[in-house]
Amino acid sequence: MTAKEGLPKYERICKDADIQALFDKGEGVSVYPYRVVFLFRHDESRPVTCRLLVSVSKKRFHHAFKRNRVKRLIRESWRKNKAPLYEICSKDNISVDVALVYTATVIHSYEEMFEKTKKAVKELIKKYSSTKLTNHEVHPQSAR
């Protein structure tokens, strides 16, 4: 199943409990202009999804129209770049929650954000692959 280029409601993190779990249990990595926090889950009761949370600081962007502009650019670039991550999730039957926290103090162009989001997705795939390898090395019989 391939990912469609949409961002429906079920691919967004809305519940406070899910957000809290993401920031408490998740890992983080910096890919300028983002701080990427992610949490891989293997939950049989939920469908396979790549859910997103976008955060832009009021401290860095005082005006709401600037924060909203940045969030629109991030969501659009995520929407266009999420397909490789979604394919891995559906292949391995896992879900991932991702928070993209915008850390820059200026609004970058769409092209720059697109490339940086692509880089962030590649970083997530790399982190998942390394986690998957170490989990299989530690528990080789758990794959049965």
Question: Your description of this structure?
Answer:
This protein is α+β, with helices and mostly antiparallel strands. The chain has one domain (10-131): Ribosomal Protein S5, domain 2 (2-Layer Sandwich), CATH 3.30.230.10. 47% of the residues lie in helices and 19% in strands. The protein contains 4 helices and 4 strands. It has helices spanning 16-25, 64-81, 83-92, 110-138; strands at 27-31, 34-41, 50-56, 95-102. A 4-stranded mixed beta sheet has the order 1-2-4-3. A hairpin with a 2-residue loop joins strand 1 (27-31) and strand 2. Helix 2 crosses helix 4 (110-138). The protein is globular and about 40 Å long. The chain starts with 15 loop residues before the first helix and ends in a 6-residue tail after the last helix.
N-to-C terminal Cα separation, in Å? 24 Å
What is the class in the CATH system? Answer: Alpha Beta
Would you tell me which CATH topology applies? Answer: Ribosomal Protein S5, domain 2
In the predicted model, the low-confidence regions spanning at least 5 consecutive residues are 136-144
Q: Tell me the radius of gyration.
A: 16 Å
Order of helices and strands: HEEEHHEH
Question: What percentage of amino acids are in beta strands?
Answer: 15-25%
Reported for the largest beta sheet, the result is: 4 strands, mixed
